[in-house]
Design goal:
The chain is an alpha/beta fold. The protein is 31% helix and 30% strand. The protein has 4 helices and 8 strands. The strands form 2 sheets. The protein has a 4-stranded mixed β-sheet. A hairpin with a 2-residue loop joins strand 2 and strand 3. Helix 1 packs parallel to helix 3. The longest helix is centred in the middle third of the chain and has 28 residues. The relative contact order is 0.11. About 11% of the residues have low confidence.
Length: 177
């Protein structure tokens, strides 16, 4: 499977690259390589801790995991295992929903970019809000591993925010324009 590796404060040796290739080759067993639009691995090191972030763009959904730890190989193992679990869960949920009459491909492919502004704003993201159902928004939120997700409700044509509450249940904020 083809993917791009971006590193910050980490020198990637050939043995590290081979290990990453070995661990993330399992992804192609879970999902067809033709269905993966792009895949990125971001490796960074802050003090003695490694951070591995894997992001895959599939038709209609972005799947992302992030793992941190002090041992590079342990962090790569954890990230690849979590990534594989998340892809399997996505595959199962879309297959289940497809059987129940909900279309298989979600309609959200956000174009995201980061931009540093001032001291108070450290990160800015932009994305296109596409119409989707609450169920599709929930699936997208789970695949990204976020605690909230902004979407346009296909039923009401209003912008909604789906979020995880402190007690573990879900909430929706409906915004009138």
């Amino acid at each position: 499977m083809d993917y791009n590796i971006y590193s910050k404060d980490v020198t990637i040796t050939d043995s590290m690259k081979d290990y990453i290739d070995k661990r993330f080759s399992k992804v192609s067993k879970v999902v067809n390589e033709e269905k993966v639009i792009s895949m990125d691995l971001r490796l960074s090191k802050v003090r003695a801790f490694y951070n591995v972030e894997a992001t895959a763009h599939l038709p209609g959904v972005v799947v992302r995991v992030e793992e941190k730890g002090s041992d590079f190989y342990t962090v790569v193992d954890a990230a690849s295992d979590a990534f594989e679990r998340r892809l399997k869960r996505f595959k199962e949920r879309t297959r289940f929903k497809h059987k129940n009459g909900i279309k298989e491909n979600l309609e959200l492919v956000p174009s995201q970019f980061e931009e540093e502004q001032s001291i108070t704003v450290t990160r800015r993201k932009r994305f296109t809000i596409k119409p989707m159902t609450e169920e599709e928004a929930l699936l997208q939120m789970e695949m990204l591993g976020h605690t909230f997700f902004v979407f346009r409700n296909i039923d009401t044509d209003e912008v909604n925010v789906l979020y995880t509450r402190k007690i573990g249940s879900l909430g929706i904020i409906e915004m009138n324009e």
